[in-house]
């Protein structure tokens, strides 16, 4: 593997680091950053077969203060340019987002500036939505600090990232960005990354497969700590942590399947520790510590059929002191959830509050409870006996249970 070892002088700007990664070409290789403190005026984009490696705590990348540029009126879907009221400080190569005050999700646009001509700016991708003047559309210098778009065989290792959230007038939405972000990417590894204070999610990815996240820590973000979403499949989170995020510590988004979350910690998050919802099935949460969150330690969201949660297992976890502000109990099972296994967990209520250990909504079915030690909760379990399973539901879950057919929503199936 070709390796580029950058000196501090050679890594003096985001542009210089990007040039080093791009110089590796299709064969790829590794770019190794020195111990530096660097302000990023743009995101670092990984190419296929490229690894970006730092020196742990010694390599600190900080997002530059954000700026807001109002659009000069309506602009339409698919265009590779955009009209602004002014363009001061914008230049080719910078990464930006476009959004309005109504829509979110995939209606936002994330791209790289290709040219600036008066009050017009070119982007390397078409607008993902119509932007109407009455919805107050803006271009913002908000971007993932490290990201990959439709790449394979990539890695990010041993970096410290600072989102500088107090200096961001607006953030990027969870579907188009995060401090570390990937979309439609496969065989991705993120390890040894410590991040804090991003205006948005900590780590997020959409429509990805074969992802490994190890020994990472994402804290104090305005969104969720971790956000695997949009059909991402065959994912391992191991020895990771999320603390004091404004949403959940860990948020399974739409159809995040065959995910294993092992030996991780989620504490002090505002909404909940772990949130599981729409079509988030065949997932395994084991040997985790989920404590002192504002909402339930683990929330199975109120998703109705046919997109309900099912075939998930939570085992060997410590779930304690949660539901301090919202929620029925330490673990809430809502909506039409079914075929869930909750076993061998240590469940402890918050001091001075009466909260259930496990709450099962009347609409849930076949919830298996076995070997859970429940203390300091009142009552230990809320749930009609008709909602509980007579025997442990048989299903396979987690990353090791993923088979070829489980990726057909991302790749289709081979032609016969």
- Global morphology: globular
Uncertain regions spanning at least 5 consecutive residues:
none
What is Rg?
22 Å
Approximate helicity band: under 10%
CATH class designation of the largest domain: Mainly Beta
Whole-number tally of structural domains: 2
- Termini separation comes to 37 Å
* Widest beta sheet: strand line-up: 1-2-5-14-17-20-23-26-29-32-35-38
SS element count, helices? 2
* Corresponding CATH superfamily of the largest domain: Single-stranded right-handed beta-helix, Pectin lyase-like
Assign the CATH topology of the largest domain: Pectate Lyase C-like
**Percentage of residues in strands:** 35-45%
Strand tally:
40
Mean pLDDT reading: 96
Q: Could you please describe the fold and organization of this structure?
A:
- With 416 residues, this protein is mainly beta.
- It folds into two domains: 68-140; 143-400, Pectate Lyase C-like (3 Solenoid).
- Helix content is 3%, strand content 40%.
- It has two helices and 40 strands.
- A twelve-stranded parallel β-sheet has the order 1-2-5-14-17-20-23-26-29-32-35-38, with helices on one face. Strands 3-6-15-18-21-24-27-30-33-36-39 form an eleven-stranded parallel β-sheet, with no helix packed on it.
- β1 (3-5), α1 (14-22) and β2 (29-32) form a beta-alpha-beta unit.
- The chain is globular, with a radius of gyration of 22 Å.
- It starts with a strand and ends in a 5-residue tail after the last helix.
- The mean pLDDT is 96.
């Amino acid at each position: 593997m070709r390796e580029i070892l950058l000196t501090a002088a050679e890594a003096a700007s985001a542009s210089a680091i990007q040039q080093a990664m791009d110089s590796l070409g299709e064969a790829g290789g590794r770019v190794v950053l020195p111990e530096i403190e660097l302000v990023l005026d743009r995101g670092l984009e990984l190419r296929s077969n490229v690894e970006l490696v730092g020196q742990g705590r010694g390599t600190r990348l900080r997002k530059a203060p954000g700026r807001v540029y109002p659009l000069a009126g309506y602009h339409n879907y698919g265009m590779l340019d955009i009209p602004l009221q002014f363009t001061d400080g914008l230049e080719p190569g910078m990464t930006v987002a476009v959004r309005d005050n109504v829509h979110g999700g995939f209606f936002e646009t994330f791209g790289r500036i290709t040219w600036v001509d008066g009050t017009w700016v070119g982007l390397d991708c078409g607008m993902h939505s119509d932007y109407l003047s009455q919805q107050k559309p803006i271009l913002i210098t908000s971007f993932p600090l490290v990201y990959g778009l439709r790449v394979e065989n990539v890695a990010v290792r041993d970096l410290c990232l600072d989102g500088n959230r107090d200096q961001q007038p607006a953030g990027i939405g969870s579907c188009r960005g995060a401090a570390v972000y990937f979309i439609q990417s496969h065989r991705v590894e993120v390890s040894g990354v410590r991040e804090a204070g991003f205006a948005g999610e900590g780590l997020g990815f959409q429509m990805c497969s074969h992802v490994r996240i190890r020994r990472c820590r994402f804290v104090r973000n305005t969104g969720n700590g971790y956000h695997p979403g949009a059909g991402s499949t065959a994912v391992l989170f191991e020895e990771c942590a999320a603390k004091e995020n404004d949403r959940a510590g860990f948020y399974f988004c739409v159809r995040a399947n065959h995910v294993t979350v092992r030996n991780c910690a989620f504490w002090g998050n505002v909404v909940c520790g772990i949130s599981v919802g729409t079509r988030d099935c065949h997932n395994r949460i084991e040997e985790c510590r989920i404590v002192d969150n504002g909402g339930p330690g683990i929330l199975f969201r109120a998703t109705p059929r046919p997109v309900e949660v099912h075939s998930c297992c939570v085992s060997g976890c410590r779930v304690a002191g949660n539901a301090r502000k919202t929620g029925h109990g330490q673990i809430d099972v809502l909506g039409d959830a079914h075929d869930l296994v909750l076993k061998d967990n240590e469940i402890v209520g918050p001091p001075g509050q009466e909260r259930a250990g496990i709450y099962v909504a009347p609409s849930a079915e076949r919830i298996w409870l076995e070997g859970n030690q429940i203390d300091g909760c009142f009552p230990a379990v809320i749930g009609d006996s008709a909602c509980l399973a007579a025997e442990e539901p048989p299903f396979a879950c987690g990353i090791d249970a993923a088979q070829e057919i489980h990726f057909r929503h991302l790749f289709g199936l081979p032609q016969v």
